[in-house]
Amino acid sequence: MLRLDGISRHFGGLPALDGVSFTVPRGRVTALIGPNGAGKSTLINCITGADQPTGGAVVFQGRDITGLPAHRISRLGIARTFQNLRVFPRLSVLDNVLCGLTGQGGQSMIMAMLRLPSLRHRERLLRLRAMAALDCYQLGDKATWPAAILPYGDRKRVELARATVSRPDLLLLDEPVAGLNADETAGVGEQLKRLRAGGHTILLIEHDMTLVMEIADQVVVLDSGRCIAVGTPAEVRRNPVVLEAYLGQTEACA
Ligand SMILES: Nc1ncnc2c1ncn2[C@@H]1O[C@H](COP(=O)(O)OP(=O)(O)OP(=O)(O)O)[C@@H](O)[C@H]1O
């Protein structure tokens, strides 16, 4: 589904990513883990076009998408959530989720001005899809609320609904449970399991190791911009290089 070939990204000569290569298989959950500053968000930014790699190639469904602008990559079927929430505070919850369907409107400016019945029909269908996504995340009763007044946990779920509403071929989730309490984390964990069961391909950045070990099929470990391990959760958990770099020597000795 996605192949990364030697991705590098240097900031002022300092490597945030240094020749990172791995593949994200279709229909599986791949977790990307690593200590703070390892380069995880930079890598997601390079995949989605929010940033450009200084070396290497991003190949999605057989096509080289390296350096394409973010809106074109999004149209190819890659959606994401952000580590620092990016909901539109003044838009309603429903409109925030409809933003995840902008590429599917299919209307030209002329059609939009003429308000043809076919266009109104299409808009109704998109709203129904957005409402169904909100229901999946238990947000249906807050559809008309401005996003600004939602509690943090709800805003996280609005982002998830927006990222998943278009049924993207690849879903990139940057710390979806960061800042959530235990109940909210469990709720999002259930959602992620449902997405996995539904055949979604997911690249998940997460520091919550319990969640990662529970839902990932494959774990990729970054450390100081390098890929130091790729394997199943069980393989990675007992890899001494990973334990030393990420989990700490104490656990390695346990
Ligand atoms: N725009 C930038 N300018 C300069 N340095 C940057 C920039 N973005 C990231 N970096 C640096 O690149 C390195 C990797 O950062 P990145 O945010 O990708 O790490 P991360 O693994 O996502 O960390 P965390 O788990 O804390 O989110 C860090 O040293 C960071 O300071």
UniProtKB/TrEMBL annotation:
The keyword ATP-binding applies. SMART domains: AAA. Residues 2-249 form the ABC transporter domain. GO terms for cellular component: plasma membrane. Keywords: ATP-binding, Nucleotide-binding, Transport. One of its GO terms (molecular function) is ATP binding. InterPro entries: AAA+_ATPase, ABC_AA/LPS_Transport, ABC_transporter-like_ATP-bd, BCA_ABC_TP_C, P-loop_NTPase. PANTHER family: CONSERVED COMPONENT OF ABC TRANSPORTER FOR NATURAL AMINO ACIDS, CONSERVED COMPONENT OF ABC TRANSPORTER FOR NATURAL AMINO ACIDS-RELATED. This is ABC-type branched-subunit amino acid transport system ATPase component. The lineage of its organism: Bacteria, Pseudomonadati, Thermodesulfobacteriota, Desulfobulbia, Desulfobulbales.
